[in-house]
Write a structure and sequence with these properties.
The chain is mainly α and 414 residues long. It has 19 helices and 2 strands. Helix 7 runs antiparallel to helix 8 and helix 16 runs antiparallel to helix 17.
Amino acid sequence: MKRFTIISVCFVLSLSIGMAGQQLAVNEAKKAITGLTMTVDSYNKAFNKLKPALSNDETKDRAETWALASRIKMEQYDKYIDNRRVGKKIDIMAMGHTLIDAYDYSIEALKLDTVRILDKKGQPVIDKNSKRPKVKTKFSREVANRLLAHHDNFRIVGSELYNIKDWDGAYKAWDSYCELASQTSDLRWLKPDSLVAEVRYYQGITAWQRADTIDAVRLFNIARRTGYDRKDVYDYTLVCLTDMGNETDVVRLAWEAFIKFGTSDPQYIRILINDYVSREDYSGANDLLDEAIEVNPEDDELQNLKGLVIESQQNIYEALPYYQRCIELNDSNAQGQFNVGRYFYNKAMETRQNSTLYGKRLANLVNPIYREALPYFEKALALNPENEEVRNALRDIYYKLGEADKLQALEESR
């Protein structure tokens, strides 16, 4: 029995020593950052003294531990800024992640420091004015003031990390900035920031860079809803929605963009026209195109789209004037060049099929039509060498015309 008692006492004593040791680490870290000649490296040493206390069972649930971690990292970030101000070279990534870590430690300190006041029955005491549960804190004001003082630094750090392609770091810094400024944040003393919508947009780009298209769409939608509705936001969102195969939302957003920006960018109306055509609503497609062309009659893309709709509804012969008008407005429109060439190619093929002639007499009839198609197809291929339809058509024409040299050059150009 005596032996058991001695062992028990020793065990309790060893626990007490361990707990005291971790609290001593906190005290030593606190003392280490009171010097007047602190450097980035000395802040690292102070944090390394504190680090074990962040995971120790005795100290990890104390607000003081995390508040001190927050202070060390915030002051270390400030030292980075001081060094840069006097012309010293600094590690941008290390500086940025120092501030990001400070945010995480601050939030943990605030959570642990906010303790609800309970009545004798163990129920939360409600403040008569705010109607919210009363809480007591010890470190929150200090932690909150540091966050408030560094609020805009999170936005700046996000930009700096983005510039060095640290997408994860930029995302986290911008997210911290927005959370601090948000009305729904736990830090309710901070007012909403007019820059939040723009920052959410850039955060969306980092999500896209990280190949997280779902999150990118979420952030772009937040940006638009909260006032940052520039054209780039619509364009990035459309790219993400297209990658996701979300056709319904692509069309919905294209309508929104078309209403806002009109025909300044043909991509919106192309999406809408394709939607009409896929639903075989040619009347709706034509009405929309006519409206757009009336506003911008010099738009070659709109003319080409009109031709495609007419062709879908009727035939390529009726569509030809629109294809011709397209390349008249812009002879570098590869699709327009291809479509005019396709008209002559189809005409030659139909002439060949419907003719009762054969041999040389048939060749004399159709070869001139093939030759009319050549310059358009060759121009289209020069503008878009990846178009296999153009390449196949040229291969067929060169073969029929006996243009062996051109056929060989075509094959070698792949």
